[in-house]
Amino acid sequence: MIKVLHLIEALGVGGAERRLMNDLKYLNNYLFSNVVCALSEKVEMWYPEFSQITLYRLKAGNIRELLGCARPLNRIIRKHGIQIVHTQLFWADLLGRLCKLFNPGIKLVSTIQSTAHENNDPYLYSYKRKLLDGFSGRLFNDGFIAVSEHVRNVCIDHVGFSAAKIRLIPNSVDFDYSVSLEKAGLLIQEFALTKGMVLITVGRIDPPKGHVYLLRAMPAILRAFPEIKLLIVGDGPTRKEAEQEATCLGLGKKVIFTGKRSDVRELLSISDIFVFPTLSEGLPLALLEGMASGKACVATSIEPNMEVIKDAQTGVLVKPADPDHIARAVIALLGHPLEREKMA
């Protein structure tokens, strides 16, 4: 049996965490023995069926604490006889590489979720991080997993990782779930929704997700369809700014900020169009889940989204940071329900 330690920054509700949950759920238990370590004491995502998986929580809120985690992590590796350390997200990647220094016999693999090291990414790009990530990755990693072809190309062209070390394993959606129709009905009442007139977007409220452009598209959409409502599911550092933007645009109760929710499947089930105005992604799980829920999707034409959506066939692609284009696409889908159903 191969003993694997999965090292991740936190167990929140982001794409990397959901990727890890899928890995743990579907890795062959006869071949792999899994141990999980998060660099945060807070746990938002951990499934009851993982009761047999050992979970460690370390505290790494700053560089000093991160370096201090090396010793207990080395003890975990030796205690469980770990053969493979699998890391996700920047700080976990760095700590895994540090532990490789003291445990040269382990194999180190990092799943790369984002295109943060693209030179043209105005929100995530950091030259210092790029140098540190690239140097340490080339020195210590035995392999990398890219979640999309675009991420793979960024790793090669912008970070300098060897193409021979990168495997492409796209993000996936778990279909093993059911939607509570009773709960869905209660949500329709809670938010006073009108059938056929519900837009939804799901994701962290942060500038790279492009919420502001969807909000700026709403006045035009409302002029065409006054009954429409938009559900913004998620939370983040710029939620207050997004709410202020909605107020300034006079959107009132037409935009509902739901915060973090545990019933996203039900919220998707009562929605009609999934809108994804993101500016930067690796391979977006939110978009995959929107499509898997049988919703017509409008998404920005960044390369990772273009790997998921075939324009005008399996969704509609719009220009990034373009409220007018978002509005036109949503209005067209709302006005042609049969086309919307076919696309969904």
Describe what is shown at a glance.
By secondary structure, this protein is of the alpha/beta class. Helices cover 41% and strands 18% of the residues.
Describe this structure in words.
This protein is α/β, with parallel strands linked by helices and 344 residues long. It has helices at residues 15-26, 63-68, 70-79, 90-102, 127-140, 149-159, 181-190, 211-224, 239-248, 264-269, 285-292, 303-308, 323-335, 337-343; strands at residues 2-8, 32-38, 54-57, 84-88, 107-112, 143-146, 166-168, 198-202, 229-233, 255-259, 273-276, 296-300, 316-318. The strands form two sheets. It has a seven-stranded parallel beta sheet with strand order 3-2-1-4-5-6-7, sandwiched between helices. A six-stranded parallel beta sheet has the order 10-9-8-11-12-13, sandwiched between helices. α3 packs across α4, α4 packs parallel to α5 and α8 (211-224) crosses α13 (323-335).
Summarize the topology.
Elements: E1 2-8, H1 15-26, E2 32-38, E3 54-57, H2 63-68, H3 70-79, E4 84-88, H4 90-102, E5 107-112, H5 127-140, E6 143-146, H6 149-159, E7 166-168, H7 181-190, E8 198-202, H8 211-224, E9 229-233, H9 239-248, E10 255-259, H10 264-269, E11 273-276, H11 285-292, E12 296-300, H12 303-308, E13 316-318, H13 323-335, H14 337-343
Helix pairs in contact: 3-4, 4-5, 8-13
